[in-house]
Amino acid sequence: MYGLCDSFGCSKNTNIRLKLPAVCFIWQIAMIILFGIFVRYNEESDTHWIEHKKTKRNLSDIENDFYYRYPSFQDVHVMIFVGFGFLMTFLKRYSFGAVGFNFLIAAFGIQWALLMQGWFHSFGTGKILIAVENLINADFCVGSCLIAYGAVLGKVSPVQLLVMTLCGVTLFAIDEFIILNVIHAKDAGGSMSIHTFGACYGLAISWVLYRPDLNQSKRLLGSVYHSDVFAMIGTLFLWLFWPSFNSAICSHGDGQHRAAINTYLALASTVLTSVAISSLSKDKGKLDMVHIQNSTLAGGVAVGTAAEFMLMPYGALIVGFCCGIISTLGYVYVTPFLEKNLKIQDTCGINNLHCMPGIIGGIVGAISAAGATEYVYGSEGLAAMFPMVPRLQGGHQAAGLCVAIVFGIGGGIAVGTVLKLPIWGDPADDNCFDDEVYWEVSSEILAADLCAWKMLENKCNRLRQQTCSKYYLYYLIP
Amino acid sequence: MYGLCDSFGCSKNTNIRLKLPAVCFIWQIAMIILFGIFVRYNEESDTHWIEHKKTKRNLSDIENDFYYRYPSFQDVHVMIFVGFGFLMTFLKRYSFGAVGFNFLIAAFGIQWALLMQGWFHSFGTGKILIAVENLINADFCVGSCLIAYGAVLGKVSPVQLLVMTLCGVTLFAIDEFIILNVIHAKDAGGSMSIHTFGACYGLAISWVLYRPDLNQSKRLLGSVYHSDVFAMIGTLFLWLFWPSFNSAICSHGDGQHRAAINTYLALASTVLTSVAISSLSKDKGKLDMVHIQNSTLAGGVAVGTAAEFMLMPYGALIVGFCCGIISTLGYVYVTPFLEKNLKIQDTCGINNLHCMPGIIGGIVGAISAAGATEYVYGSEGLAAMFPMVPRLQGGHQAAGLCVAIVFGIGGGIAVGTVLKLPIWGDPADDNCFDDEVYWEVSSEILAADLCAWKMLENKCNRLRQQTCSKYYLYYLIP
Amino acid sequence: MYGLCDSFGCSKNTNIRLKLPAVCFIWQIAMIILFGIFVRYNEESDTHWIEHKKTKRNLSDIENDFYYRYPSFQDVHVMIFVGFGFLMTFLKRYSFGAVGFNFLIAAFGIQWALLMQGWFHSFGTGKILIAVENLINADFCVGSCLIAYGAVLGKVSPVQLLVMTLCGVTLFAIDEFIILNVIHAKDAGGSMSIHTFGACYGLAISWVLYRPDLNQSKRLLGSVYHSDVFAMIGTLFLWLFWPSFNSAICSHGDGQHRAAINTYLALASTVLTSVAISSLSKDKGKLDMVHIQNSTLAGGVAVGTAAEFMLMPYGALIVGFCCGIISTLGYVYVTPFLEKNLKIQDTCGINNLHCMPGIIGGIVGAISAAGATEYVYGSEGLAAMFPMVPRLQGGHQAAGLCVAIVFGIGGGIAVGTVLKLPIWGDPADDNCFDDEVYWEVSSEILAADLCAWKMLENKCNRLRQQTCSKYYLYYLIP
């Protein structure tokens, strides 16, 4: 079929027939070699478990950590692939790219994450010993890159995305190691290391890759009825499983239990305030799907760091309450501001869903750590939660937040500069947000197109015609 | 774009720009205050768990109830938000309202439910101590309100829905307390307390809000191809996780295990009989998506109360067998009858999916309780399952069912009367089932319009027209 | 509405108004009777558990196997109903049939599977005692029939599908019993017993039912934009939960843990090679949704048998690497070859997703079993994993693979011959892949058509135009 590209006449070459396969093969082969050298099963996933469990006060098979991490892992796994993937399907003609490229970069990222995180957490022993907990951490790590993808959605090629992911995972692993193991900050739900870092990373890249003429593609920068419904699949699975996300790597027992409860409550109150602000922001009080799809999740981001602390149920509600307001206002005022004044084009509004709530999360974590008292935690509980003095811990939390921001922005600018090279096959400004650039799209368009051509043949003047068939194509095909 | 409202000229003011935000803010702030006063973590989600577990025969962290309730909780959570939400997306132009308002009222309802249920189950101690089991119960409670939403889908404003939920949750908590704690009936899967109550509540409201001229909106009272596929997402997740729903709050051990098995079997046989009746009811034996989307779930409703009893696998199959037939016949005959003769307009047919099967479930529960024998249960098992004499238990089960019906109908009439006030911004009769009333809807419609114009202008002969429109059909209809 | 059938004039009678209900009722009643005679709860789901657990070193309720199998079961359950169902919704006008018939045959199949597998695994004791593990096995068994459905998708009637499932489940149970209990091969993830058998069964049936004039329906043999997005729901849930699928029935402890890890890794590397080959195979390097939807899953199939072995992380990556390539090349070259030269019409390309990868999985299993050493497994580990000598085990694995192929092809030919009888109400060659044959489809098509006509006929005075296009809008926009 003749794609839109031909009819509009693109300035750029988006042929990735050699680049994409080359990158995929090279990197996958590299993964195989590195896994061969470094990665082994740990004592709980190795056949030597039989001997191992005897040494550990005669563990039984059902005490294998698998049974206490795997359900949370699966929830997180669904969030990464279905949640993030479908959340980004809202564009009328970029659903394939949203869910497909999300799939591609996540599948690559988790492999590289297992290595990077493994190297950092398994010094000394030459081998990286993996179990289900490592898989959760790998999913978390990739999450930060998928957040970044949200900022550049529709404006980059899959090759750029793979480079972005390779660098993003690397930066994440260093960043996380510094925050958790050097600074000894706590960040169970990754408000700082995942959301703040990922969002800053993505926004910085988007800033470097600024496209002054992007409005040439604005016919495609919007949703159709069913693409919005698809996006709700992503929203709901993210919302539902967020309690698992924030509790997945907490230490077993009350901490994990509490993290799930706090997240559940924070998310619930976010929904009400998001709806309220969305309705206030529109004429006649109509709701905007963009706000419902995104801002309702902000509470989960913001409660991440403090989820395992004694935030108290009402504390969680307050965090959610504020984030729903801030995030929705972000979509109404901040996103246009960023584009107009700071030249940051943020397709999915990750600033409102991940950056601002992530920073709030870091601050909430610092405050609630600094304010921790023996009265609330109990002497043993306090000691178990905070190895160092609470007030000191608060300072370290704040330091962790700064590290995440610095790594995100710095890394993003560096990577963005690389991605600016004209070798990656990214789309032209009049050709963004369009699946036809990188996907074989089924031929309903051709049909519509043909119809449009038929019309052209008759008397109407070219200009109106052109516009018509254009609208026709883009709007009619849901 | 010009909305329908403008073109049809609605008589009613559906502007909720002040009402909706006001209600959301007031109620969310109230939640925060009440949670601040009453809600705390229980011993398993509190940092004092460290001391607590020592007192309890030296529990280990992995014996925290979190690990034995949380997977079931997540399944139930998916049912409430994805299951109920998407099941109602079948209408051609009300998918946003279905999944979006479901999201809103569920998120508000779970908070209020934690308080209401907490107050009833934590007399004496001033505080409500929450853990994952409370979250499950809150989800259950909200479930009954979402069932009620099904009856009024497309005919009420979000403000009315929030009022409906506030009252529904309140009534549910009282109703449930009476059934379980006063009458001491058993209702693991909530056939009585959730489904019968919720359906009666919704139908009563719908009866009070009867719209004689609703057929003015009947152009929108139907599905399109893809809206039916979206609805199947809801159907399948409800169907799949129903075993978790019916077993989620059973006491640990064989009861929970058995409840899951019975539900799995009941649902399986429901599918076959639903398909059979659906095919019989249509010319040429074609299947009706409405039946497949809804009636296939009736078995799960009906087996709820008796799920943890020794219903026996074949007993579960029989229950499912009957409900598939009754529920499908309900869609064919009862729903039209209710609308025509009883003036009950039931958008989703909750009478067929929740009311009738729920009542059957209550009866099945009463019979199987009354018929329980020591031979089947074993002496200890019988004592553990039924504190009182089986025959007596049967009577109490029946009493519980009556309570649920009375509360549902009575409460529904009362609440419906309040919702009838002309202050809630509900849509006009010619404007129901339309997302444009409360949502910003993207503008593909206008485009289709433009195109229709073009076809008109050209003079192509019938034949070409035919061919064109044929292609048009196949390619365009997604 | 006049369906496509009428406009094209079908030669065949597709009325199943008596056949389908008859089959459903007869088989469901048969299930009830057989369950009444044979099926009971096992000691973990029976009220006698109370006595039972005392006899077993005083088990506590939370040691009931329910808590260690149920989460995996639910993941598998989602794969069977949502995963397989939505994966097949990619056709533009067969989404109802894909997800609806998948639902029907799976719901019937699991009941019959519980009986067939029960009879084989509970000789001696007259009763079949079921628990959650049996439910997992029943889901597995049905999986093989759903794979077979993929080959005949859109070309058979629901009655044929039910017959196909009845026979398929029967054959599967025998086949599985021979492989696991007679030959003592190991097949945790069912590469041989589920995928190879199921695919051979389906392909053989499709070969017998070859339709020389199928291209008369080729207007419908393709996707539209949103049907491809729906299919991605299936793809992702299959991909995500495959680790649960391959580990669900492993013995508890390290084996189950390792199976999940190996599957996770194999699937990750499959994605990259599938994308690479897909891009290479197309002009301009555009990706093909068919490859992304299917080939990305091949790694999970191929790692099934060896998942619980000490395949090593890099070994899993290598398996996935190869399968992504082979499966994608299969879609590009093998499927057309099969249709052209072997007269096998394979709608979903199950040969590429299940047959070839399944056989590879069997071979990988045989090799890795034969190569097992005490050095890698540890003496106790080796003994626990392989009762017989590794090299011998390898031979038995290979034998198991052959059995699966023979049963699949032989059974498929036999069943296909029965299905060829002209009594089953299957569609005509010009009427395949069309939901209107067996489903009530909403009337947007007629509307669009009518509207086009109206516009032509009247000389379009703006006003009437307006009204017409209004209907148009509401029906056309999905």
Structural class of chain A: mainly alpha
Our count of helices of chain A gives 19
Order of helices and strands of chain A: HHEHHHEHHHHHHHHHHHHHH
Distance between the termini of chain A: 19 Å
Biggest interchain interface, per-side counts = B-C, 96 and 101 residues
Oligomer: homotrimer
Spans of at least 5 consecutive residues with low confidence of chain A: 1-10, 445-478
Strands ordered across the widest β-sheet of chain A: 1-2
What's the overall geometry of chain A? globular
The radius of gyration of chain A is 24 Å
Q: How helical, in percent, are the residues of chain A?
A: 55-70%
Strand count of chain A: 2
Mean pLDDT of chain A: 88
Main sheet attributes: strand count, strand direction, barrel closure of chain A: 2 strands, parallel
Question: What is the percentage of strand-forming residues of chain A?
Answer: under 5%
GO cellular component, one term (chains A, B, C): plasma membrane
Subcellular location (chains A, B, C): Cell membrane
InterPro entries (chains A, B, C): Ammonium/urea_transptr, NH4_transpt_AmtB-like_dom, RhesusRHD
Transmembrane segments (chains A, B, C): 20-39, 73-91, 98-115, 135-154, 161-180, 192-210, 222-241, 261-280, 292-311, 317-338, 359-378, 398-419
3D structure, described in words:
- Three copies of one chain form a homotrimer.
- The first copy, chain A, is mainly alpha-helical and 478 residues long.
- Chain A contains 19 helices and two strands.
- A two-stranded parallel sheet of chain A has the order 1-2.
- The longest helix of chain A has 30 residues, at 390-419.
- Mean pLDDT of chain A is 88; it is low at 1-10 and 445-478.
- The interface between A and C is large, with 77 and 72 residues.
